[in-house]
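Technical note accompanying the year-one report. For the benefit of new consortium partners, we illustrate the data format agreed upon in the data management plan: each record pairs a sequence with a structure-token string. No post-processing was applied to the example shown here.
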Amino acid sequence: MINNVVLVGRLTKEPILQTTPNGRKTTFINIATNVYSDYLKKTRTNYVSVKLWGPIAEYATKKAKKGMEVSIEGVIKTSSYIKESEKPIYVTEIIVEKFHLFTRRSEELTHNAVESSTNEFEEFVKALQ
């Protein structure tokens, strides 16, 4: 049997690092992916829940921002739990094994330009004093 998922999409919110009671680092993210339907002749957006653990979770919370394009590879995990109403709740999520950020060159240049202009401005203010 093969259980392998590869997705490319955009983050719908900022990842937030959490720590489990036993000390493991984790974060949940949602990825928006587009699917074109020949039948409907339009694109539909799917929102996929993704769970990251350990160093991958720490990396994602430091580097990833809402709207960034990401690629994930992982496995599908289905679990269930019982609510107070004694009805089982089934959850399907993707457990990430590989996480990649896609950054456009223009985004890097813009980020670097903002940093360099801030540094130049600070130097200019110091020179005036």
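Partners are asked to follow this layout when depositing records. The radius of gyration is 20 Å.
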